[in-house]
Amino acid sequence: MEFSYQPSYLSLYIGLGSNLGKSILYLKNAKKRLCSLRFLIFVKESKIYWTEPQEKLNQPWFANQVLKFYVPAHIDPKNLLKFTSKIEQEMGRVRKEKYGPRTIDIDILIYGNKILNDSKLFLPHPKITKRAFVLIPLQEIEPNIKLFDQPIVFYLNQLDYKLLGKKIWQKNY
């Protein structure tokens, strides 16, 4: 009898954002680089949404998107963070000011049902329930997902936002 190891997989949701240069090309390039990571299995992607800036208002609008992958359960989320940070750096991300303009932002939103409060990584993402630009594309690709035992619509109903086509306006949270 031959034994073959079959890893169990977790659902992984990653948020992408860009508001400098050719934002859509940055999102596509980030997706391509994430898909090249051998341990990630691409599942689906949301549409790209144009979003009013949050926190720091005086900057260009953002292109935002959410991607779903499967990741083997044994992969440590902190290791994935190292890969996503390296991709950001290779794509020209410079961290000059918090919430400032950027070529690419890659956020690990949800990593299976893992909860993590580390100095460098929080899971689920600490602002996930306050950001329409994350909740709307997440709901698009995973309409029945729950966050903290609540459906996404529960959190959307608490936000002051407007969705028109692919544009999202949200009052600062």
Automatic annotation (TrEMBL):
Domain of life: Bacteria
Bilayer-spanning residue ranges: none
The EC number(s) this enzyme carries: 2.7.6.3
InterPro entries in UniProt: Hppk, Hppk_sf
7,8-dihydro-6-hydroxymethylpterin-pyrophosphokinase domain mapped to chain residues: 98-109
A molecular-function term among this protein's GO annotations: kinase activity
A GO biological-process term: folic acid biosynthetic process
Pathway stated in the Swiss-Prot or TrEMBL entry: Cofactor biosynthesis; tetrahydrofolate biosynthesis; 2-amino-4-hydroxy-6-hydroxymethyl-7,8-dihydropteridine diphosphate from 7,8-dihydroneopterin triphosphate: step 4/4
Keyword terms, alphabetized: ATP-binding, Folate biosynthesis, Kinase, Nucleotide-binding, Transferase
Gene3D superfamilies cross-referenced by the UniProt entry: 7,8-Dihydro-6-hydroxymethylpterin-pyrophosphokinase HPPK
Pfam families attached to this UniProt entry: HPPK
SUPFAM superfamilies, A to Z: 6-hydroxymethyl-7,8-dihydropterin pyrophosphokinase, HPPK
Family to which the UniProt record says this protein belongs: Belongs to the HPPK family.
Function: Catalyzes the transfer of pyrophosphate from adenosine triphosphate (ATP) to 6-hydroxymethyl-7,8-dihydropterin, an enzymatic step in folate biosynthesis pathway.
Protein name: 2-amino-4-hydroxy-6-hydroxymethyldihydropteridine pyrophosphokinase
Gene source species: Desulfonauticus submarinus
